[in-house]
Amino acid sequence: MRTGQASWGKALSLGLIAGGTVVFVSLVGMVEALGVRVIVVGVIDFGRLLLLLIGFVAGYQVARRDGGTGAPVVLLGGLVTGAVTGVGLAALLLLGSVVNLRGMFINASPVLFEIISFGRGTAAAPVVVAAGALAGLLGAAATFLPSAVRGPLGAGLTAAITVGLFQELLQIILQEGSVRNALREFIFVPEGLPPRGALGIFLSVSAVSVVWRWRRPAVQGWVAGRPPQARRVLRWLLLGLAVALALVMPLAGGLFISQVLVLVGLYTLMGLGLNLEVGFAGLLDLGFVAFFAIGAYTVALLTSTSQYGIAHWSFWAAVPVALVVSLIAGLLFGLPILRIRGDYLAIATLGFGEIIRLLVLSDALRPWLGGSQGVVSIPKPMIGAFEFSGPTQIYYITLVASALIAFVGARLRDSRLGRAWMAMREDEDVAEAMGINLVNVKLLAYGIGGAFAGMGGAIFAVLLGSIFPHSFSLLISINVLALIIVGGMASLPGVVVGSLFLVGLPELLREFSDFRFLVYGAALIIMMQVKPEGLWPAAAVRRELHKDEPVGVVAGQSVAAERTEG
Amino acid sequence: MMQRGVLQRFSVIGLYLWGFRVGVLLIVLWGSFGTFQAGCPSALTLCDFKSRYAADVWLDLVIYGLSQGSVYALLALGYTMVYGILRMINFAHGDVFMAGAYTAYYLAAAFGRSGFLNRSPLLALAAVLALAAITAMSIALLIERVAYRPLRRTPRLVALISAIGASFFLEYAFRGFFGSGFQAYPEWNIFKGEWTFLGTGILRTQAVVIVASVLLMAGLYAYVMRTKTGTAMRAVSEDLEIASLMGIDVDRVIVVTFAIGGAAAGAAGVLYALVFKQVHFFMGFFPGIKAFTAAVLGGIGNIPGAMLGGLFLGIFESVGPILILEGLRVPGIYPAGIPAPYQLKDVIAFTMLVMVLIFRPSGILGERLAGKKA
């Protein structure tokens, strides 16, 4: 790989892969959809940025892979890679001008070609190649920057892009109040983020990053020097800050933000439940949405004022019943599949989940469950005269429920039961030999996990005010699975991080939501290879997946702790 | 296994499972009984043995089931071969099937516009099948290279999740490419109407589907049983490590397995589209799961088993709703049997899947795989 020839081959093949990727994202419709989102007014939109980023990353990868050779060769390698990427796009451009691709690829529209060619038609092909080459060159050059420069530059760019992406939302948030308004007028123009605003953000964030890099050892040293009590106070302060932020966010952000946050909360609830089954107990469950549906339907039937309502209870009375019903459903669901292991279990649970959905949807159960028309007019929860009427109010129910369930989850994880789950996850036979009653432990995992999801379903029912079987498709199970994997298996903060990333982000980027599952799919494949432990991994999982790294003090401590407890 | 006491043997779970088994059996018996007691005033009186439908309706259902089942069987081959060798569920296999059918749709549509489709129909069908097989094969190989090969030594859950990711990626990539609507597959004029065979009329499309898939399966079976690569495949699925010690290039065998499975899936996709006359980006998902059911039913890892399982599942799925559900008369609730039984045909398939996984994970013809460490 160090020899010149091999590295040229590498550059060429990476360039071809990147070129394929560029053509793929163009034809799949991402470039056009994201092209609507202007990042810096008059300079660049997200679609073009995506294309350039692919060239940049390709150049960066090539340069990183042969660090041994001299600087000019590496730079040239990046240039070639980027140019090949650009050639891919230029080929698409030329092909599109000769053949009408639209008969097959619906996204090969004139708008796409205008974005690619900067509105200049086929004459722009050399420009496209040059732009790719430049991106690749910059990517290769980025490897030479010392990390003290690269870090702040990256942070500043990321911040400017993020602000540009979310400018619409930020502008709405910054509309009220004189200080906020002044800030808005300083950064934004009505159409979006102008170059001066982008530059301002870039410079200020870079400056902060430089200062932080310079002062970080001192701050960390100071914190480490405090006595344990003071450190605990600091941690509580940080937690309090997070809670305060969570409390204020919907009020400051308005209706749209609240809606997104409620969804994030609901997925967090489901994620906590599934995390218990998959993360702690190692039981892969692809029919998880069934419990969500059971919780939702229980609340709907108990509270609805429509013809399907059977009790006209209040939400607060119905929730405990929904929890119990979904717990029992979890137990009944778990009983027959106790002896199934591994990927057979995944398929069996998938089958169960689909059976529930199809039954609810069918005409056979229509007299009780409403069939495809669903159950409507579910009243909103009330406390006295206060009605939890909209997403902003229901958000607080979700928040309280998530906090409660995260607490229960954390206590369960550290309990005897949690340890039994993890032992079972590692090896069922050994766990059984150690005296763990597999039947009880598995059933409890299904039951408690189901109850957590039932809680989410209960809130979902009152959030929408009406429920339909179509809301409980398999895609939700996959969604929840994806978020706990991306967040980090068996990690409680990971669930929150995962749902913020996989549910919150696509909701905020509306144009993006069409490509949500495409990105999920890619994310699952990439995560499994690059970072199977997730974004915020649990300590044990990280240790297991990186066995070659030094284990250090943490492992020793936990082993000691386990010994004293046992 | 240690000798257990009588009480231990009849545990609560054992009882529950027995109850489950007996319950399903009772439903099947009661439903079939009801179907053959058509015209009775009440569910509980006994009348003359009389079917609700004439014999040729049943025959039609069976033939429809056979054509459906032969598509499942072709698809199940891919699952069973990959599982036999890698012990992993190729969750994206159903989407490979979709990819083949969907891409070949554009060729078929072009043939339809130019009139070639009806000028030389068999040639056109062969070309469409070939394009579907080649596309599906390349996509299967791509998935193997990108999503599965790097994960061969990781825990199996990791590979399964990667496969789920690949499945979603394919579905939504095709949605992005070709749109989210249904596309109507062009119809071959000579495949319209019926052929009379041994005195009964068979829909021509169904006959074509059955014949084509039987031919394909026979070819595949011969390949696996007769050629050197096929022998290597069987050796690897028997024991991967020993096979590699014997000088078999395991990587190559795996690639060939994915290629064959993918090609069969692509062809199956076209046949499926011939029956249903439309393609859609999500069309592979449920047939995929059902074909996996078929593979498990026949004993996973076992090629004749997968064929048998597919046919069995297809027939059961087409006959089941009428046979079991329509006659399932519950006094007071469903006096005339379950309404709209065809809505529940997938429930029958999934129930069968779950039942097989619970009670006989080794399938009809399978070796005892479930005993091996999952």
Summarize the structure.
By secondary structure, chain A is an all-alpha fold. Chain A is 74% helix and 2% strand.
Architecture overview:
The complex is a heterodimer of chains A (566) and B (374). Chain A has 566 residues and is mainly α. Chain A folds into three domains: 144 residues; 80 residues, no CATH class; 325 residues, no CATH class. Chain A has 24 helices and four strands. In chain A, helix 11 packs antiparallel against helix 20. The radius of gyration of chain A is 27 Å and the shape is globular. In chain B, the strands form two sheets. In chain B, strands 1-4 form a two-stranded antiparallel sheet. Chain B has a two-stranded antiparallel ribbon with strand order 2-3. The two termini of chain B are 18 Å apart. The chains are: A mainly alpha (566), B mainly alpha (374).
Strands of chain B, total number? 4
**Per CATH, which architecture of the largest domain in chain B?**
Orthogonal Bundle
Task: Indicate the structural class of chain A.
Answer: mainly alpha
Number of helices of chain B: 14
What is the spatial order of strands in the main beta sheet of chain B?
1-4
Low-confidence stretches of chain B: 368-374
Radius of gyration based on Cα positions of chain A: 27 Å
Count of distinct strands of chain A: 4
Q: How many distinct domains of chain A?
A: 3
Unreliable segments of 5+ consecutive residues of chain A: 550-566
Overall radius of gyration of chain B: 22 Å
Helix content of chain B: 55-70%
Number of domains of chain B: 2
Assign a percent range to the helix content of chain A: over 70%
Strand content of chain A: under 5%
Order of helices and strands of chain A: HHEEHHHHHHHHHHHHHEEHHHHHHHHH
